[in-house]
Amino acid sequence: MDQAESVRTPSSWVVVGLDNGGTCNNATVLDATGQFLVNDLVENPSRVLEGPESAVEALAEAFGNILELTSTPLSLVRAVGLDTPGPASAHGVISSKGATNFNQVSWHGFDIRGALETRLGLPVVYNNDGNAAALYAHHQHFGAQASEHSSVSAIVGTGLGGGVVEAGSVVRGSAGMAGELGHVQIPLHGVLEDDQPVPMCNCGFAGDVESIASLTGIRNNLLPYWLTRFPDHPLVNEPIGVAAKALRGYGEKDDALALAVFGQQAKAIGKLFTIAANFTDPSAYFLGGGVVEADPHFRQWFLNCVRENTELRDEQKAVATFALVPDRDMAGARGAAVAALAEASITAASAA
């Protein structure tokens, strides 16, 4: 990919967005006028498995690389947005029990936001990755009217992440754990088959959204059941982990087993959105993650299934939108940048 074709010169001060993942860090630059300076995915190794010190240095390298790529002087950077997988506090302290990609003891209770802030010498604004993607989807969809609307996002991946945005800002909660939509327990009537076991989540809950609508839910709960209903399917002979990862490809080919599994996932998310409709009555429901990084006809089918299984009142149907999270691979870094821009703008206004 020729990055030079997608790079613009900053027209004012900027913020940098950094999306930390298990394999790579994604980076972007957003200027004060709301323009992203890079149109494509820019990745560097994240080195999280080497421990906190290496991972923070890798984030610093990603920061330096994106400034070099966009010909942005360090002096123009007002703040940095950072997102990582959760659970973590609202201030970027990894859970005392570790988190996704952060299993080593050295990560438990580690303040990754503070460590990066010290390393870069710039303010760092933290969100978990689900909240960052939710924030980007909201602002990209509503634009200048973002502060006038609310939204709920479900991000389907290894787990089920998400975020709640109210008046253009992420709802964080007192412990920073609001928007953990994967662990909302849902009514299972109409989702499971009569003889299907109640799915269990790794968090210990029975019948929460993540136990169904996630890659982990497919591997641990849905696929073992559905393979018994399709004993001649090619995936019967594959290890369950391999089969779970291969399932989306079958779904894109309208395979009956795959559509049964993904149909249950869509029903579960519909139940979640029905609960959200009664709690927050959002303007928009966004769907993101691996399940929509697929063939266009499949992801549209999945979104339609979610919509059909979300029970809204007529008044809500008239005003609610269902949409996919845009720029899927870049949504985390871009959402992190949007959060940093908001904080930097407030600071600039206060200083004026």
Automatic annotation (TrEMBL):
Gene3D superfamilies: 3.30.420.40. InterPro entries: ATPase_NBD, ROK, ROK_cs. Transmembrane segments: none annotated. Pfam families: ROK. SUPFAM superfamilies: Actin-like ATPase domain (SSF53067). It comes from the Bacteria. Belongs to the ROK (NagC/XylR) family. PANTHER family: GLUCOKINASE, ROK (REPRESSOR, ORF, KINASE) FAMILY. This is Glucokinase. It comes from Actinoplanes couchii. The gene is glk.
